[in-house]
Amino acid sequence: MPYDADAMRAKLKKQLGGRAPDPNEFRVPKVTNPSDLFKYRFYILPPISKGDKVVGGTANQDMDLFYLSDGAHWVNNKPHPCPRVISNDQEECPMCKAGFELLAEVKAGPNNSEENRKAVTNQWLPQTNRIVNIYFPAVKSNSEELRGRVMWFKANKTLFDMWKEAMMRDDPGPDEDDPQAFGMFFDEQNAFLFNLVVNKDGVYNGYKQSRFITKDNQGQLACGPIAVKADGSPDKKAIQAILDMRHDLYSKIEEPNQEQMRKLAIQLGGLAEGDEGFDQDETSTGSRVSRTVPDTDKDEPKPRRPARQAAQVVAEADEDLEIPPHESLAHESPLDDEEDEPAPTKTVPKANGTVAAKPKRSVPVAAAKAEDDEDAPEQNDAVKLMLGQLSGDDD
Question: Rounded distance, CA 349 to CA 356, Å?
């Protein structure tokens, strides 16, 4: 019988919290055993230019950097794209403005603590990722189904900070025994291989053991083409084939909805009906629903500040505050319907002064550990990889 594919896909997308699973997205499995380590090795690929060949067609927009910023506010266990993050601060977000102001109130008041700041952050501020194209070479740390593939990946703050620091360096550093990745590490002709190490860190995945591979087996700086011929020279055809498998990252970001953000801010008590902005002195106008800051002893209303001042306070002391990820196959992916066991709830402050329980759920994932046996064979004869000479395969 004929099926309405578009209608069924739309329903599936709705049930999965905004988008259907993409088989081309690399999603890190959940580490459930403290003794387990998952290892993957990949190259971060260079940015796409308008007119470049991509999966499914041709890119119609330039990327300024090797990544795109993506972010979403999680309300009722569903992601809502953040216009501020996605536009790189070119657009305002009602949810963010309310969150910045409440964060400033907590920081300026007697209840200033990391626990209270995180509670506000979880409730009001978006979960931010950097989306990149990555290429998995044929090495033993990568499973068979990954070898030779180009996928897109949502990297969290821990990983992005490593990449940012590498990009800002001009040289490998003074320590010859411990060189650092530097410069345009994603250059297909002078790339550094990234070793992703995933362990259990509390209730979340941990990524702090990840690093760039910077030395080969001869102790030389391991930086070069992402594909080489038998004689070690760059394999231009193989490199171009890899680049042509990149994904249009703009198509992976859901368009934000300003009106939806405004309604969510009203729903959570951060914005009153008819209030279109946050620039007035609300302590005198009373245009916003009164909010309180959580107190271990009592809930006492605190004076509110204009959003501009709140944002300044946040920028000064909360740059390193990272929102804990929502649990699923990846760090920041929507919750799956297969989840069958609720995790402990977490209390978060609501704008009206009450405290609401925000449930977290975990996903049982049967994920194979990375291989620890011999190096894998090459993906095919056309792609000659230099990676067999890199050190650290037995890590």
Answer: 6
Token pair recorded at residue 328: 């699923």
Taking the whole predicted model, whether its pTM rises above 0.90 is answered as no
| Cα–Cα nearest to 186, from 281, 288, 313, 65 | 65
Spell out the domains of the chain, with CATH numbers in brackets: 23-395 (3.90.198.10)
CA distance readout (Å), 297 to 130, 257, 300, 348: 39, 38, 9, 16
Cα distances (angstroms) measured from residue 244 to each of 13, 84, 152, 239, 251: 28, 31, 13, 9, 16
Contact present, 318 and 310 (Cβ < 8 Å): no
CA distance 35 to 122: 28
- Among left, alpha and beta (phi > 0; psi -120 to 50; other), residue 88 is left
pLDDT tens for 19-73 read 567 999 999 999 999 999 999 999 999 999 999 999 999 999 999 999 999 999 9
pLDDT, tens digit, 9 for 90 and up, residues 339-372: 333 333 343 444 444 434 333 333 333 333 333 3
- Taking each helix axis from N to C end, the angle separating 94-108 and 258-267, rounded to the nearest 10 degrees, works out to 40
Residue 3 identity: Y
Q: What are the two backbone dihedrals, phi and then psi, of residue 267, each rounded to the nearest 5 degrees? A: -60, -40
Return the H-helix or E-strand segment holding 212.
strand 211-213
Residues 6+ apart with CB under 8 A from 256: 80, 81, 82, 83, 86, 87, 91, 93
CA distance 101 to 324: 20
CB burial of residue 301 (10 Å; 0-12, 13-18, 19+):
exposed
**377 secondary structure, DSSP code:** P
